[in-house]
Each structure stands twice: as C-alpha cells, then as structure tokens.
C-alpha cells in the first residue's frame, strides 16, 4: 500500500445484523443443482446485477462455465432510488434461474465466488467482511466503499485472511484505455477524462458516479498522484491531479447532461481517444479470470489512491480550490 501504515481491522466492525428480514415473496429458494462454478450476487438494487447475470448465464462457454445461481437482494434500504428497484430485479433474476436467499450466510453456503453489487458503498465493509471470513473470492463493484477508511479495512482483512479481492469500474476496460495502459502508444505525458458525476448525499461527491471517469484516468496514469485541485460549479466538477513525475491529468465530471464517457491521452506515439465505452463484457471477462486465478488485475494501492484522489477533490472544493496532498487523505 505504498508504505502506508496499515490499520488494524476491528473485528467488531458491525457484521451482526446484516441479514435484513425479507418479505414473504423473498423467502429462501434453493437453486437447481449445477456442475457450473457457482456465483452468488449480493445486492439486487442495481442494474449491474441483472446485466451481469444475463451475460454470464446466457453464454456459459464464454464465461468458463461460471453461473450465477443465487442472490441476496439487499442492497440498500435507505437510498430510495436504488431500494425501489429491488422487487423488479428479484423478478428478473428469478426468470434467469437464480434462487433468492434470506441472508448472506445462506448465500455463502451455496457458492464458490461472490459478486458484491450492493449500490450503497456504506454497506460494503460489513457485507464484504462476511464473504472474506467465509474465504470466498470477491469482486466488489464501484465504489469499493463509501470511505477510504472502510476500503482500507476491506483490504486489510482480505490480506489477513488471504482472500482475493478485486474492485473496478467497467470504464477501465474500454479498449483504447487498455491499449494505452499496456504501453502500445509509448510513454504517457498527460491525460483527460470525462463522465457523468451524479451525486448522492450519502457518499462523497465523486464516489457515486464520478468514479467512472476517475478510474479511467488512473487506468492510464497509474499510481503516484501527489496533489489534487478541484474547481466546482453547478455545471461541472473539474479535478486536476499532479503526479510525482510531473505528469498532469484532469477529470471533468458532469452532474447533469448526456451520459457520455471518454477522454484523451497524450502519448509518445500520438494522441489517443480513450472512448468509446463498449459495455460490461470486458470487465466480466476480467472478473472470471480473477475468480480462476485469484490474482486481482488492479492493485489495492491503486484502488485506494483512486478513493484518496476523490477525497482530495472534495477537500479542495471545500477549501476554495486549494491544492490538497493525497498523503493528507491517507493520514486522516
């Protein structure tokens, strides 16, 4: 973790009481027996859960015969825009042969690996902790947590229990982003990215949606951001980071407007457009590879630095666009 002092994981992190009571329509259903490698989904409050299930279960050969067999619906009960989706998404995954459990404990008894899809990042630490204690490889959808401290606790526990954990936005796997990241265009001088940056009051500004564009930047720039400056208006958040080798990268987040993703990277061999966004499949293939190998394609250090970047952006905004050192975010 780039020399950062590790925090001791608090065993009393609040795992108890996670298994919310379900309505009768969500009673335990045992899925059909299958020789497939079994995936469990935690959280049916996001369209990702349905889209991932449809892709994986609809093409077993493409996804190494993994199969989503069971899901635990909750998922936030306090963010209305997400919670109101749960009954609809329960019905949709049921139609794809997925059983519904009454608790995470029941889910973990039936699966080999887990997709933690809960839309509410505040729930990720306690939910992930149950999975890690059960020693199941775990993918955590963005954001990995609703705070840098929670994310550090997740990685610390995973390290202690020797459980592989991987978190990423699907934007990291846009084809040109990966081409740049693999060095196909030579040394990178500077980069820009843009994405929607819809805000949710329960999460720091960029965690809820702006993380897509921020992760695009880090996918090409790598770790090493030292300071962040943010300028924010009702029309856009413009966040500039300076890396330790003098490179500069800027993210533009749009609270409203078109749902477009992309960016530009200035490289040794030319200027590369980072879009267009091509969907979930590249990420899903990386998740399946991760489940097979137990090796995350994104380091914990990079995931944590992404969160520190977004925290520094919020702090810079609060302090009238002053530059903020990322080390101060970790020191908090």
UniProtKB/TrEMBL annotation:
Species: Pelobium manganitolerans
Transmembrane intervals: none
Protein's UniProt name: Dehydrogenase
Domain Gfo/Idh/MocA-like oxidoreductase N-terminal: 38-166
Pfam families named among the record's database cross-references: GFO_IDH_MocA
GO terms, molecular function: nucleotide binding
């Amino acid at each position: 973790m780039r020399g950062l002092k590790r925090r001791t994981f608090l065993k009393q992190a609040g795992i108890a009481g996670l298994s919310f009571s379900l309505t009768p329509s969500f009673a335990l259903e045992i899925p059909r027996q299958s020789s497939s490698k079994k995936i469990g989904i935690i959280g049916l409050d996001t369209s990702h859960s349905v889209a991932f299930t449809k892709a994986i279960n609809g093409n077993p050969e493409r996804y190494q015969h993994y199969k989503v067999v069971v899901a635990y619906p909750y998922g936030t009960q306090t963010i209305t825009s997400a919670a109101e989706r749960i009954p609809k998404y329960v019905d949709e995954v049921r139609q794809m042969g997925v059983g519904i459990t009454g608790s995470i404990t029941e889910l973990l008894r039936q699966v080999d690996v887990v997709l933690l899809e809960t839309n509410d990042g505040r729930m990720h630490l306690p939910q992930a902790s149950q999975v890690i204690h059960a020693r199941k490889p775990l993918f955590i959808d963005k954001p990995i947590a609703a705070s840098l401290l929670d994310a550090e606790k997740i990685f610390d526990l995973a390290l202690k229990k020797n459980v592989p954990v991987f978190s990423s936005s699907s934007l990291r796997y846009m084809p040109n982003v990966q081409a740049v990241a693999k060095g196909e265009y030579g040394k990178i001088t500077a980069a820009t990215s843009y994405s929607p940056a819809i805000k949710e009051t329960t999460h720091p500004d960029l965690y809820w949606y702006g993380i897509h564009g921020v992760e695009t930047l880090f996918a090409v720039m790598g770790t090493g951001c030292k300071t962040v400056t943010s300028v924010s208006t009702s029309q856009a958040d413009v966040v500039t980071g300076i890396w330790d080798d003098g490179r500069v990268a800027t993210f533009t987040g749009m609270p409203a407007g078109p749902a477009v993703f992309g960016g530009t990277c200035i490289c040794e061999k030319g200027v590369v457009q980072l879009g267009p966004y091509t969907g979930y499949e590249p990420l899903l293939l990386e998740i399946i590879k991760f489940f097979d190998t137990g090796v995350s394609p994104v380091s914990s250090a990079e995931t944590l630095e992404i969160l520190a970047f977004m925290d520094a952006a919020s702090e810079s905004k609060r302090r009238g666009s002053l530059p903020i050192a990322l080390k101060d975010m970790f020191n908090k």
